[in-house]
């Protein structure tokens, strides 16, 4: 981050405002609203003297800026139309270690003033780091339309009940669950409809329910998708925000983990080929252990938890211990990676069916029905197949698949570093070695793979073998 986001409590604090034009007047309005004690310095105060001459919160000094005016100030804002004066203010503030905002001059600023959505006591600040102020204003307008005034009323209600709730629910986790229940209830709608008394009664009822301790925690089995956080469902985002502890897999992207609540405990239980640092039995035991501590637990799995994710095994372990759970599906890798590579898994001219296959080890590969997998007019999506490419090629060719059958290997599908390697089945392992394909990578085999060259739309870094020709359109 170029700037550290921070809200300042300026009530009763001395602040210096250099300038008295229209821009300075707008800054003065904000400073007064925040309760600051403002000293305004300018050679000409005629623009604001009439409005603020008798204001006890504002002191007007008709004089040029001098560095000694900064003494004892917490913040200074330079809002003159003279760049040399603004630069002098910034230089003097830097020397005295005072935060300075210079209007419309990012290089001189040690602090910037964001665009604001005011639903006091809820205040939302939006900043582009002064690089794109129009974009920040556009985002502000969108939030203004999205967040109505009842949000401020809700925050004030929470403030009024704060000490009562803290006394009756001394456990932090219990309070967090209580507020989640409040926000998921009808209470915000009641406030929006100005039914304050009904809202307070509902809050009181929910508080009484929360005082009855639950016997067990709860586990949410959540699909994280292939990596792009934009593919998470709303329910998945809500679960991440409500979780006390999150157990996540190796394939869950850092961008998805960023959506978790900041104080949630994040525990990696990832498994990858040749490195199972946490066994499945140990993961099951951890889920049970933390749920018994009355925690909200999220088991976060790459893709969809029920597609080669052992999600069913984990739920069986929870059910055996009578621990409540729910499932939030995710977009599985085959669907997402193929879509981000511009490959339709089914297409009436190329494939009438699709098969999801796992081939992460020799034993699993030996149990597959290769005769059916080698049939025409279908798409094969191999999960965890990087280590078994030789076997996949050999078995398919032995059972009648054409050597020229197209393939696409999608590495880091849906992520910014996505890469697609294409070619023919006969050269599959050689192409993977040549281009050093690494997990996570999804292998798509079938006629639909050749459509990638015409339909690619996302981060089109494609490595095409010399023998592969793009699908041509027919006029």
For this entry, give a set of tags.
alpha/beta, Rossmann fold, Cobalt-precorrin-4 Transmethylase, domain 1, six-stranded mixed β-sheet, five-stranded parallel β-sheet, 20 strands, 36% helix, 20% strand
SS field, number of helical segments: 18
What is the tally of beta strands?
20
Number of domains: 4
> Could you tell me the radius of gyration in angstroms?
30 Å
On the 0 to 100 scale, the average pLDDT is 91
Structural class by helix and strand composition: alpha/beta
Global geometry: globular
Oligomer: single chain
Beta-strand portion reads 15-25%
Q: Identify low-pLDDT runs.
A: 470-475
**CATH first level of the largest domain: which class?**
Alpha Beta
Spatial strand order of the main sheet: 15-16-19-17-18-20
- What is the CATH architecture assignment of the largest domain? 2-Layer Sandwich
Give the SSE map.
Blueprint: E1 14-18, H1 22-33, E2 37-42, H2 46-52, E3 58-62, E4 75-78, H3 83-95, E5 99-102, E6 115-119, E7 122-126, H4 133-146, H5 150-168, H6 172-184, H7 187-192, H8 196-210, E8 218-223, H9 234-242, E9 245-248, H10 254-257, E10 265-268, E11 271-272, E12 275-276, H11 280-292, E13 296-301, H12 311-320, E14 324-328, H13 333-340, E15 354-358, H14 362-366, H15 370-373, E16 379-383, H16 389-398, E17 406-411, E18 419-424, H17 428-434, E19 441-445, H18 452-455, E20 462-464
Parallel strand pairs: 1-2, 1-4, 2-3, 4-5, 8-13, 8-14, 9-10, 9-13, 15-16, 18-20
Antiparallel strand pairs: 6-7, 11-12, 16-19, 17-18, 17-19
Helix pairs in contact: 6-8, 11-12
Please provide a written account of the structure:
The protein has helices spanning 22-33, 46-52, 83-95, 133-146, 150-168, 172-184, 187-192, 196-210, 234-242, 254-257, 280-292, 311-320, 333-340, 362-366, 370-373, 389-398, 428-434, 452-455; strands spanning 14-18, 37-42, 58-62, 75-78, 99-102, 115-119, 122-126, 218-223, 245-248, 265-268, 271-272, 275-276, 296-301, 324-328, 354-358, 379-383, 406-411, 419-424, 441-445, 462-464. The chain is α/β, with parallel strands linked by helices. It has four domains: 1-113, NAD(P)-binding Rossmann-like Domain (Rossmann fold); 150-210; 218-331, Cobalt-precorrin-4 Transmethylase, domain 1, CATH 3.40.1010.10; 334-464, 2-Layer Sandwich (Methyltransferase, Cobalt-precorrin-4 Transmethylase, Domain 2). The relative contact order is 0.07. The model is unreliable at 470-475 (pLDDT under 50).
């Amino acid at each position: 981050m170029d700037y550290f986001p921070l809200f300042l409590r300026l009530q009763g604090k001395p602040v210096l405002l250099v300038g008295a034009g229209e821009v300075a007047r707008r800054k003065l309005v904000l400073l007064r609203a925040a309760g600051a004690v403002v000293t305004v310095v300018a050679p000409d105060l005629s623009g604001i003297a009439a409005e603020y001459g008798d204001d006890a919160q504002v002191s007007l000094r008709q004089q040029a800026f001098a560095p000694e005016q900064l003494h004892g100030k917490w913040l200074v804002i330079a809002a003159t139309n003279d760049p040399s004066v603004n630069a002098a203010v910034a230089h003097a503030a830097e020397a005295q270690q005072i935060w300075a905002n210079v209007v419309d001059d990012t290089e001189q600023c040690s602090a910037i003033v964001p665009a604001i959505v005011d639903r006091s006591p809820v205040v939302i600040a939006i900043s582009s780091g002064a690089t794109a102020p129009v974009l920040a204003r556009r985002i502000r307008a969108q939030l203004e339309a999205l967040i109505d005034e009842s949000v401020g009323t809700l925050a004030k209600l929470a403030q009024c009940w704060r000490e009562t709730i803290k006394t009756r629910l001394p456990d932090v986790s219990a309070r967090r669950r209580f507020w989640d229940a409040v926000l998921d209830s009808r209470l915000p709608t009641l406030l929006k409809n100005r039914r304050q008394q009904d809202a307070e009664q509902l809050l009181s009822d929910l508080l009484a329910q929360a005082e009855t301790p639950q016997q067990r925690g709860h586990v949410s089995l959540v699909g994280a998708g292939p990596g792009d956080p934009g593919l998470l469902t709303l329910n998945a985002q809500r679960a991440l925000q409500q979780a006390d502890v999150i157990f996540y897999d190796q394939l869950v992207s850092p961008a998805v983990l960023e959506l978790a609540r900041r104080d949630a405990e994040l525990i990696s239980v990832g498994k990858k080929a040749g490195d199972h640092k946490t066994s499945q039995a140990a993961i099951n035991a951890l889920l049970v252990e933390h749920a018994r501590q009355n925690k909200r637990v999220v088991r976060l799995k790459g893709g969809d938890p029920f597609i080669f994710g052992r999600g069913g095994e984990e739920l069986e372990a929870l059910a055996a211990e009578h621990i409540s759970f729910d499932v939030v599906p995710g977009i599985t890798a085959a669907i997402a990676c193929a879509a981000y590579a511009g490959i339709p898994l089914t297409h009436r001219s190329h494939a009438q069916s699709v098969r999801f296959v796992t081939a992460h080890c020799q034993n699993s590969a030996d149990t597959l029905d290769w005769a059916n997998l080698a049939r025409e007019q279908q798409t094969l999506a191999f999960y965890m197949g990087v280590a078994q490419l030789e076997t996949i090629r050999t078995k398919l060719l032995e059972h009648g698949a054409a050597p020229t059958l197209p393939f696409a290997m999608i590495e880091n599908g849906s992520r910014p570093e996505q890469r697609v390697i294409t070619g023919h089945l006969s050269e599959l392992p050689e192409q993977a070695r040549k281009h050093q394909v690494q997990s996570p990578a999804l292998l798509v085999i079938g006629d639909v793979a050749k459509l990638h060259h015409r339909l690619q739309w996302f981060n089109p870094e494609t490595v095409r073998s010399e023998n592969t020709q793009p699908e041509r359109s027919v006029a």
